[in-house]
Amino acid sequence: MEQTLELSPGDRRLxxxxxxxxxxxxxxxALASDTPFYHLVLDRxxxxxxxxxxxxxxxxxxxxRPMHGRSKQEAFxxxxxxxxxxxxxxxxIRPLPTAKRAVWDIVGRALCSAPVRxxxxxRLAPALERRFGRGYATVGxxxxxxxxxxxxxxxxxxxxxxxxxGITVQLYLPTDRSTTHIGTIFHKQLGDRSLQKSKQMSFxxxxxxxxxxxxxxxxxxxxxxxxxxxxxxILLTYFVDAGVLRFLRNRGKRVGNFVLNEFRSRLR
Length: 268
Prior knowledge:
Layout: H1 9-29, E1 31-33, E2 39-43, H2 48-56, E3 65-66, E4 83-87, H3 90-93, H4 98-111, H5 114-123, H6 125-132, E5 141-150, E6 156-159, E7 165-172, E8 185-189, E9 195-200, E10 207-212, E11 219-221, E12 231-240, H7 244-267
Antiparallel strand pairs: 1-2, 2-10, 3-4, 4-5, 5-12, 6-11, 7-10, 7-12, 8-9, 8-11
Helix pairs in contact: 1-4, 1-5
C-alpha cells in the first residue's frame, strides 16, 4: 500500500480482506505466555507497507476526542486531555481527508472482521474457557477498535478491566524503538492481595499484546514522561455480546458515542 492513496470502495474491501488475512496469521503466530496471566505477545501485526502508511497518515490532533475511562490522570495538560481517541468505524473517520480516511477505513474493517475475532478466541482459548466454560467459542464478542493517543501526564493504575469486556488487545504504533520503556505493565496478585510488577510489554513498532479479561488480569501504565511526544496505539476491545442486554448496550453505546461526537464536531 502506498503511503498516500485514494481507493474505490471495492478496492478498499479487497485491501481490508488482505490485511485481515495477514493479521490472522500474525495472531496465530503470536507467542503465548502464562506469566503472570495467560496472554499473547504480538509481533509484526501489520505488513510493513501498511504500518508505514498508518504512521504517515495519522490524524491531526483536532480530529481526536477526549477518552475517559479508568485513567487516574485525566487532568488537562496545556488545554488538552491526556488521552484522546478516534473510533475506527466509518462514521468516525468520515471527516478525515481522503487519503487518511482510506488507510484507517481499511484498518478498521480488518480489525472488525470475524476471522480476526475468531483468531483471538482460538489463541486465547485456555483463559476464555476458564471464564465462560466449554461453550466459550459461541459467546458473542463485539469488536470496537479505537485509535488512541496519550501525551505526557497520562497514567492508569493497576486494574483488571470491566466484566463487560471479553478480550483486550493493544497494538503499539511508535515510529521507532526509542520509547520501548512505556509499554503496558502486567501485575501478579500476591496472597495478601497486594500487586507485584511481573512483566512489561515493550512499546516497539508494530507489536502488541492480547488477553482474555479475567479476575487476575491486572495491568497498568506508568505516567508518560516528557521524553515522549505521543504514545499512539490501537485498543481493540471485544465486548461480551451475549444476551439481549449486552447486545443492545454495545450497539447503543456506538450510536450514542456517534451522536455525541457529531455534536462536539459542530461546536468546534
